[in-house]
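Feature request, filed as a ticket because there's no other form

It would be nice if the structure record came with a short human-readable summary line next to the tokens. Right now we just get the raw output. Example of a typical job, pasted below so the devs can see what we mean:
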Amino acid sequence: MLLIEIPVAFLLGLTSVIRGWGSADEQTVAPAMDWVPILWFGGFTLGVLVIAVIFLHSAHPFAGAVQLLLAAAALFFTIAAWHDQYERAHPPPLPAGVGMPHAAAPNLSSCCS
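Raw output as currently delivered:
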């Protein structure tokens, strides 16, 4: 079971990177959240947790503890993927002065002559 996790984690990382290449030419409109990387990382995390429970139940505490540590790392990556997608879908608002014409600014050079 442990040998299956390594290629799955590698493929998960590879597909996440390849999916990110297409987002370089995004439009100015904020896109919707992309749930695919979040669900993939979440599924991988769940799989690692299931393997950890199997190891702990079958009296292999060291292997189960290692799996729990891997699950914690996978959960970190799941939360990071969610945060990246949330930030991409909800960009911060522009400052109030951006895009305003400067024609309405007062001319101070004529007051002191």
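Something like this underneath would help us a lot:
The chain has a mean pLDDT of 79.
Residues 38 and 82 are 6 Å apart (CA to CA).
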